[in-house]
Amino acid sequence: MFSTTTLEDYFDFLSPDDIRLKGHRIGIDNVLEYYLEGYTPEEIIANLPSLNLEEIHATITYYLHNQSHIDAYLERLTQKREINYQEWNSHPSPLVQRLRAEKARRYETKEKEQ
Q: Is residue 5 pLDDT above 90, yes or no?
């Protein structure tokens, strides 16, 4: 008996905004970021060595078969990352606050010495 594998079998659809390669913590967005920048599948593997060529090709093929849907998915991820960064930047942890204060103090000291 033959096993029929579909493209979707390569992925874990954890949520509408979290699609990962099955057996990895790597999201399809990680692979597609390289692909959309013009990397070949072999170059992608060099940057994501825990994946194999079959998984890379499955991700690219899934993207090409669902391009408008995946482009919207990638745009949502980009927007979420920007919102998270802005939130983090406007409410830094105490450690980040201390590091920023120290950096400012050093800059002021350097300016006074000149």
A: no
